[in-house]
Design brief:
Blueprint: H1 5-19, E1 43-45, E2 54-68, E3 71-84, E4 87-88, E5 96-107, E6 115-123, H2 135-142, H3 151-169, E7 177-181, H4 189-204, E8 208-213, H5 226-234, E9 242-247, E10 256-262, E11 271-276, H6 277-280, H7 285-297, H8 309-318, H9 322-338, H10 342-349, H11 353-361
Length: 362
């Protein structure tokens, strides 16, 4: 018989320790980053916009088709759409790019940890044409990570998102906005180069670059989750839609000016929101409000109140579903069995023992 008492006692002890956290309402900062006090007077109401701005939304997804200790084959998908207020203003056809990636680990003493990565990228036939990331760039970026870094499998897709952002900019003009799913943070020099190329193009067209994150691990100086604490403080303002400045970036790798925003009165969640710092410095309150108001107008769909519907659409079309992976996995296994590709089968079998045990014991 299961004994739930130890788990219940653990949860109670944790809850008691969380209940009495002393407040210190400033972001727990990285070195040399300017931070702003989280207090009611620093909130700004988001007022309605007369004419919503045109906004492009970019997202991506990936899934593993097969893997072994020394290689991974993945399916990657990136997508963008454009909205103006509630209306999608750009045809969805041809805005998806699908491609396959193979990342192989090889032992070589000159590399960090003695491992280097060979990259193969192949475009899917049913894909919008775009320049895929350079395989040499992916190799260079991965040669500075540990062998088990989770970014190894996702880097091709991450770089492709910046490349797709470049294409989305071609459909935007002066005063429009580009919103990336996640953040503007770039953890290495290679990804920074891809992102900076997109930032420069956006600035040359006077298109504002932003990002919105569904989740955040940021904490205040008292150790409270940032989004929770900001939402608590916001109740003292009486605002139903609001924004508040948090920090001039959260790390040396973050080029975004960080805020927290709530985009619908009935929203259950607030979100981390970023504007490219160089652009934010040149904005007045009216421009910032116009961006937020345009996003708020787009954040009224009942599927996820308070979250931009453009990103809901982008997530839907960029998502790599389990059925997609099952089809490609079955196709690859068939080719392996009939195409004299036994080496691949031998290497992938090493990681299949655990799955087989689960089938037997579950």
């Amino acid at each position: 018989m299961l004994n739930f008492k130890p788990l219940t006692n653990l949860a109670k002890e944790l809850n008691d320790s969380l209940e009495f956290l002393p407040h210190d309402d400033v972001l727990l900062p990285s070195k040399d980053r300017k931070v702003y006090e989280l207090k009611p007077s620093n909130f700004r109401k988001i007022s309605p916009a007369n004419t919503p701005i045109k906004i492009a939304f970019v997202d991506g997804g990936n899934g593993t088709i097969t893997k072994s200790p020394n290689f991974t084959i993945s399916f990657n998908r990136v997508y963008y759409c454009i909205f103006q207020g509630k209306k999608q203003v750009h045809n969805t056809q041809g805005l998806t790019t699908d491609f396959f990636s193979c990342i192989q680990k090889r032992v070589k003493g000159a590399a960090k940890n003695g491992i280097i990565h060979d990259i193969i990228l192949r475009m899917s036939r049913n894909s919008h044409n775009m320049d895929l990331p350079d395989s040499n760039d992916i190799t260079a970026a991965l040669n500075n990570v540990t062998f088990d870094d989770p970014r190894i499998d996702t880097l091709p897709r991450s770089l492709a998102e910046w490349r797709l952002g470049m294409i989305a900019l071609d459909a935007l003009s002066d005063g429009d906005v580009l919103v990336m799913d996640g953040s503007l943070t770039t953890p290495d020099k290679i990804e920074s180069r891809y992102a900076n190329a997109m930032f420069e193009k956006a600035q040359s067209k006077n298109v504002t670059v932003c990002a919105i994150s569904k989740t955040s691990r940021l904490l205040t100086r008292s150790g409270e989750p940032l989004l929770n604490r900001v939402s608590d403080i916001s109740q003292q303002t009486g605002y139903d839609r609001w924004r508040i400045n948090v920090a001039d970036g959260v790390s040396p790798h973050d080029p975004g000016f960080v805020m927290v925003v709530k985009l619908h009165p009935a929203a259950r969640f607030s979100f981390r929101f970023e504007i490219l710092q160089e652009q934010h410095q040149e904005m007045d309150d009216a421009r910032i409000n116009n961006i937020m108001a345009s996003l708020a107008t787009n954040s009224q769909d009942l599927s996820f109140l308070g979250y931009p519907y453009g990103l809901v659409v982008a997530d839907r079309f960029a998502q790599v579903r389990k059925d997609d992976i099952k089809i490609y996995t079955a196709m690859l296994e068939s080719r392996i069995r009939t195409g004299n590709l036994s080496k691949i089968m031998e290497h992938t079998r090493i990681l299949q023992a655990h799955d087989r045990l689960n089938e037997v014991t579950s």
